[in-house]
Amino acid sequence: MMTSKLWFSFIYLGLLAVLAIIIPLFPQDPNAINAIALNGPTPPSLAHWFGTDDLGRDIFLRSIYGARISLMVGFVAVGIALLIGIVIGLISGFLGGIIDALIMRTIDVLMALPTLFLILMIQVTLDPSIYNVMVVIGLTSWMGMARLVRAEVLSIKERSFVTACRARGIAEKKILFKHILPHTLNPIIVAAMLGMGGAILVESVLSFLGLGVQPPHASWGNMLENSLGFLREAPWMALIPGILITLTVLSLNFLGDGLWLLLDPKAKEKNVIRT
Amino acid sequence: MPYYLKRLLSAIPLVFGITFLSFLIMHLSPGDPTLMYMDPSVSADDLVQVRQNLGLDKPLLIQYFLWLKQLFQGNLGYSFVTGKPVLSAILERLPATLLLSLSSLIIILLITFPLGILCGYKKDTWVDDSITIFSFFGLSIPTFWLGLIFILFFSIQLDLFPTSGFMDPMVINASFFDRAKSVLHHMTLPLLTIIIGGIAGLIRYNRFSMIKILAQDYIISARARGISEKRILFKHAMKNALLPIITILGLDLPSLISGSFIIEYIFSWPGMGQLGVQAVFQRDYPILMATILFSSILIILGNLLADLCYAYADPRISKKVKRLK
Amino acid sequence: MQFFNYTLKSLFLIVFCIILQSCSSTNKPKSNPILSLHLGGEPTYLNPILSTDSPSSAVESLIFSGLFRINSELELEPDLIESYSVNPSETTYVFKLKENIQWHDGHPFTANDVKFTFDTILDKKTNTVRRSNFVIDGEPIKFSIVDDYTLKVVLPKPFAPFLNRMAMGIIPKHILADQDINKSGFNRSPIGTGPYKFLSWKSAQYVHLNRYENYHFGQPKIKDIILKIIPDSNTALLALEKGEVDESGIPAKDFERYSSKPELNIYQYYDLVYTYLGFNLKNKYFKDHKVRQAIAHAINKDAIVKSVLKGFGMVANIPASPILWSYPSKENIPVYKYRPDVAKQLLTDSGFIFNEETLLFEKDGEPFTFKIITNKGNKSREKSAQLIQQMLSDIGIKVQIQLLEWSSFIKIVNANESPKGYDAVILGWSLGLDPDSYSIWHSSQYPQGFNFIGYKNKQVDGLLEQGRSTLNQDKRAGIYQSIYSEIAKDVPYIFLYFPETILGVNKRVKGLSKAGPTGIMNPIQNVYLVQ
């Protein structure tokens, strides 16, 4: 069961990634509009597998370009969150004391802010662009990561091998990076997978609200937004990007879940709330 | 209770930190409420005057302290866009949000509790697998898209439910029963959307806690003593599985009040979420500040409540919680 | 396992009951005596001197009356006044009010209310953006009471748009005199002298009105009006189709489907609006008249009207509206034809070189690129922007598009600085009934004001001033027509189109007027419902 979920994820994500890399090598413009002979949305056909949108643009092509955006947002946003989260989590967990308390209280403040509100507020401050979306999602999602790393560090710190290192007089810095950090990697990888799914969902909401990718460039979110006026006559305009988002996030969740079970044999007994 | 008292007290600076931070971010965003309406009949001089009347020309810190001062006098201020007292603007929207979120929460609990436990009990069978896969879907579907699809299918194609709104205004003079029926009718689709998005996490959670409990020594020994499966499930396992639910409820408190804005947006549900988002776009600072104030207080209270319930229900844990915090 | 079966069963039962129950309520009888209209958003203040948004004014027009009203032919006609006179120097007006008019609460209406209304607007403490409408060259208009039913108004100098501005809704002094009008509860439960009384307002849901029996033009025929707040136009359209609202705008793309509905009447009309592409005239490229002309020749406006408006509208060439009395006859309108070859020639003439490799025009080694900004949420503008992007890329100009949410957009365009931080905008203006467009084109309205492109033409400035102070309509028409052709020559904007509004109205609504910017139910008291 678990393996079939993992296989599904690998195949789907692999296919998406390959298409996202290959398709732009062909000289087709996903944004090209035929201004004179505009034919509104047309249903899926052999020429246009996913149909066309209201400006006569090929939805298959646009979906693939949208996949590039979504995957990129997932990677970069989670990358930023990881970087900040790991550094702060390590510092907080390893140093402890007043610095730890200070960092934890700050994280409390940041986590108590309603996230989507926060993102919305920052996003209206900045120029709407895809880079800002990545940065904003990254900057608002590292707190969970930091807490996770800190908790791991705290539990590892007490283990015998760390004490043994100390006894042998190994430098604190070395202990931290050589011995503690590697042990925190497994939960981080899992959290990163789930975080990517989350980031892709947030991006789609932001683009749906018009605060993300700018036209004529396609993202799944703004393709959905564009479909609103055509729900009845062109349901494929709404169905296709939504299905793609769902499958992508689903694959990432499967991956995260599967990896978690693979990497942590005790996971089955653990009681974990994912947020 | 000194620990919890201490935490409660430490939450006060937290709330101020949050409001100050939000205030800063908010005022960094370009534009202000006077820019909402632009047509050639409005002159620039008028905009300057209105801005001055609203106190928007004052330095940022002064504006924040004026807001604080007002707050301590028990006044949340007046909306910049409608002139309405902020408190009444919020109270007006609260019932719709509460109705939707409370009923969705109850239904979610009713569904997830038995299903999660069933999954845990029938671990690794086809029942478990299919429910798990379904719950993964629920976790992955963008809720706003699901809402759109429901509108497309149930409203447009099948014409079973209205596309949006809270109540058909045509029945305002009708009996209470008719009005309730109209609200229910309007509520079905948003409710369904929230439920599908919401059950996933809880099913997984319940499943895990059930697996954990069933592996506990006392259950094993109960089985060994030949106590019936039914009795084990209801008497021992179920009781213990309730515990984490309480925690989740505490953590969920804020979202009960703040509402899911994207769902409210899609279904034009007249709740808090819509109010807040509209305030972001209209730069209606007083409304925005109040929304943030309320939701952050609720988040902090919710966390605290979850801890308290947990400690109360299981005294063994309270020590551990203390150590971790 | 019985437990699970039981729970599941009862759950399904509950859900089923809910669905069943609520479905049965769809079959409500169609014969309801309530007129159900549609508001495109939540009203802000139900007070004509404070609000500027169209949902509010739609409600206010039913509750309040002004000294004048605008009829469906777009002419001013007396509303609260019996008659008026003006002195030969055209600066002193005397208004004779109708007697025996009562406010909705029974209090008599007098000249005190009128004076109070305009004094409140002129009061700096009032958060209104209408003040400058009653200030001419820095001097406020003076209102004085002669007797209870006679009002004298003194203007600093003759001012043509004045009478139009006296159509402003009058508010009751006896209620508001000792209140802070900005925060008064009146703004949410107003009292007026108009055809309908305010009953209730449910935030984000509806406004409910009741007819006023003592309305001075006679009791309205329909007893109740409900104005439903439906911000999303697609949702409003569905509501129209389901009979949940009696009237809604119809997007051009849906025209065919709705025009064949047996229960709907469809109306088309031009509104007082135009959409344009405006250049920041301080931009290094757009300073050059030839570059602007080149772009004008490169844009196929017919294609935009055909695809964006699906043919429901017409190409615009001047800053007016075809239904405005100052709109010139066809042969007097300067036109830039779609001629890509001419556009390329003009660019070459102004020093651009076409780079065969990048397929872009270049100047000083830099490719010609610029950014068009427009406000997010207006689909026609978004589509026009994308079409223009395509057309300009065809001749070798690279365009980027940025959609901004309204406040950010206005902040850039309306920043009190020069030069401003944008290259070009796509926007629309909605005009008043008076062709005066001083605030859009006069050079004094830059950098603060609506001449945000920085247009400066001494001749136009002079004509605009002359147009405001001339009262004779024929003379004014001549003045504005020369303004239009002068502006069209300069190409500060590329005027794109005049959209046609399409309105669907349920056939059960009768007694309608000619469709136009004042709606289709003007006056409302004549409208009635048949079953």
For this entry, what is the oligomeric state of its chains? heterotrimer
The 3D shape of chain B can be described as globular
- Measured as a percent range, the helix fraction of chain B is over 70%
Report the average pLDDT across residues of chain B.
79
Per DSSP E runs of 2 or more residues, the count of β-strands of chain C stands at: 25
| Terminal Cα span of chain B | 15 Å
Number of separate strands of chain B: 0
What fraction of the residues of chain C are assigned to beta strands by DSSP? Answer: 15-25%
Order of helices and strands of chain B: HHHHHHHHHHHHH
Helix count from the secondary structure assignment of chain C: 15
The radius of gyration of chain B is: 24 Å
Biggest interface and which pair forms it? Answer: B-C, 67 and 74 residues
Number of helices of chain B: 13
Structural class label of chain C: alpha+beta
Structural category of chain B is mainly alpha
Summarize the main sheet of chain B. none
Give unreliable regions of chain B as ranges. Answer: 317-325
End-to-end separation of chain C in angstroms reads 57 Å
Look at the structure and give the mean pLDDT of chain C: 89
Low-confidence stretches of chain C: 22-30
Largest sheet of chain C: 8 strands, mixed
